[in-house]
Design goal:
There is one protein chain. 50% of the residues lie in helices and 18% in strands. It has eleven helices and five strands, in the order H-H-H-H-H-E-E-E-H-H-H-E-E-H-H-H. It has a single domain, classed as Lambda Exonuclease, Chain A. Helix 2 packs across helix 5. A five-stranded mixed β-sheet has the order 1-2-3-4-5, sandwiched between helices. The longest helix is centred in the first third of the chain and has 24 residues. Bound molecules: iron/sulfur cluster. The site of iron/sulfur cluster has 12 residues, from helix 4 and helix 11.
Length: 251
């Protein structure tokens, strides 16, 4: 394909903007990686099937991830989708909180909710995702397990915080708690079609999440590492970024 493009475009093909942009993106990413984020168990890593991975992330073990400007642009595109839906919710008059930071010290959890919405007197957690058409079609309308776990975890955390924390936010919206429903909203990256899935609080999944978090906290508090996964499994998980730490530099 690139050969055809080279043939058609010939010398007119420019490389003026792209290298500068890539350089800027790489520099920004390096800066971000050098600034350690606050220590905590983040929902994005909690869904990982390897407990060791979750604990390595918690302990801020250096992850070996190649910096690819194209991937960085994909993340930026995802962030732009979030911003757009914040604007939509605000214009619709249903947004009551955006980018809501959540911290539950007892379980060492930190996270950030996309949006909280109030629609016809019902409080909804709104989690926004964007996905390629090809991936979405393969799911047959069923959201991935890690998305569902993330949403259940946020519902759980919000309700636990509501029970324990007295602040202006919970005083103002307390009558709408406990929050029972969330909207998992997915936009197709290729054609902007949207899909909305209502996820209700689920006792079975809540128990699964709490059990997993307790297990992780056990390892963290005792300062012991969970068993290694088989190397084949590590490779399955997208070539885990902690392989150098778990298996040595040459793996
Ligand atoms: S390299 Fe393997 S054992 Fe180590 S964190 Fe990754 S998946 Fe887990």
């Amino acid at each position: 394909m690139s050969d055809i493009r080279d043939f058609i475009l010939g010398k007119t093909r420019g490389l003026v903007y792209t290298p500068l942009m890539d350089e800027m993106l790489i520099a920004e990413e390096k800066k971000k990686r050098d600034t350690k984020r606050k220590k905590g168990l983040y929902p994005s890593s909690l869904a990982h099937p390897c407990l060791r991975y979750i604990i390595n992330s918690y302990n801020q073990v250096e992850a070996k991830k190649k910096i690819d400007p194209r991937i960085l642009r994909i993340f930026d595109m995802g962030n732009a989708v979030h911003k757009r839906y914040e604007i939509y919710s605000k214009k619709m008059g249903v947004l009551i909180k955006k980018e809501f930071p959540l911290r539950y010290k007892k379980l060492k959890i930190r996270g950030r909710l996309d949006q909280l919405l109030l629609i016809e007197n019902v409080l909804y957690l709104f989690e926004c995702k964007s996905m390629k058409d090809e991936k979405w079609k393969k799911l047959f309308g069923v959201p991935p397990q890690d998305y569902r776990i993330q949403v259940q975890l946020y519902l759980l955390l919000l309700n636990m915080l509501f029970k324990e924390r007295k602040n202006k936010f919970f005083e103002k919206y307390g009558k709408y708690f406990p929050i029972k429903k969330s909207i998992l909203f997915i936009e197709d990256k290729d054609n902007q079609k949207t899909e909305e899935i209502i996820i209700e609080e689920n006792e079975e999944q809540k128990k699964y999440i709490l059990d997993k978090i307790e297990k992780i906290n056990y390892y963290i508090n005792k300062n012991i590492e969970p068993p290694l996964k088989m190397i084949d499994q590590c490779n399955e998980y997208g070539g885990c970024c902690f392989k150098h730490y778990c298996y040595g530099e040459n793996k």
